[in-house]
Amino acid sequence: MAATAADTTKRRQRGQEAEAGTRDRLVRTASRLMQHGGYESTPVKQLVREAEATLGSLYHFFPGGKQELAVAAIGYGDGEFADMLRAALDSDPDAARAVEATAGVLADALAASDWRDGCPVTATALESVGRLPELQEACARAFGHWQELVAAKLLASGLPEEDARDLAVTVIATLEGAEMTSQVTRSRTPLLLAGRHLARLVGSYTP
Questions:
Q1: How far is Cα 14 from Cα 21, in angstroms, rounded to an integer?
Q2: Residue 139 has pLDDT above 70, yes or no
Q3: How many CB atoms lie within 10 A of CB 68?
Q4: Greatest mean pLDDT range, 9-13, 35-39, 79-83
Q5: Confidence check: pLDDT of 67 > 50
Q6: Lowest-confidence segment of 18-22, 67-71, 83-87 by average pLDDT
Q7: Alpha helix locations (H) across the chain?
Q8: Using alpha carbons only, what angle is made at residue 29 by residues 109 and 48, rounded to the nearest 5 degrees?
Q9: How many angstroms separate the CA atoms of 158 and 49, rounded?
């Protein structure tokens, strides 16, 4: 009886692991495809095929269908980008140099992807405005999360809270625009220039 119970537990665990793996593949695949082409240009059939899943599994994990999966994918992209941003900001104790280093990290990552892997939410954010409120809100949360990371770095450097939060919005907005320009022009230059001038701006506020 004990052996049977143990076998049952193992089978249940394997089933749970398989389910978690399928859900994770769906989310990661959706995030990648939406990063490249946005929400509307990500067909469900292509998504499940590349995730090595089925339509049934998609609706099992995401009863709301493609849109519910897209919200999860935006959250995944938010987390990935946040990890990169956090590591770059932590690379130098000086806030101004850290912001410039962040622009360099983004430029290197973009070039390494052959200019394909820009911001994980930009394409979806632009097409969701006024049309897909749940996706728009998820994208807004991602931008807010990244701003909080920059603000925390600036606050730790001694900036007053209002200045730190205002500058954080400026830093993320500038890097987002520069990243898009670098992607279109296939050049690191827009990001590197943005980083250099943001560093000067942040340095002018640093005590």
A1: 10
A2: yes
A3: 15
A4: 79-83
A5: yes
A6: 18-22
A7: 2-37, 44-50, 55-61, 66-89, 95-112, 122-128, 133-156, 161-185, 189-205
A8: 160
A9: 50
- Sign of torsion over alpha carbons 61, 69, 106, 95: negative
Which tokens hold the place of 21?
């793996």
pTM of the model: 0.87
Cβ atoms 156, 147 nearer than 8 A: no
- The answer, yes or no, to whether residue 168 has pLDDT greater than 70, is yes
- With contact defined as beta carbons under 8 Å apart, do 197 and 206 qualify? no
Place of tokens 């809270």: 161
CA distance 194 to 183: 14
Asked if residue 171 lies in contact with residue 85, where contact means CB atoms within 8 angstroms, the answer is no
Residue with tokens 């728009």: 136
Q: How far apart are CA 91 and CA 189, in angstroms?
A: 21
Place of tokens 């907005």: 173
CA distances for 116 relative to 23, 37, 55, 112, angstroms = 24, 10, 27, 9
Burial 92-102 (b: 16+ CB within 10 A, else e): eeebbebbbbb
DSSP assignment letter at 117 = -
Helix axes 189-205, 161-185, angle to 10 degrees: 170
The amino acid sitting at 154 is L
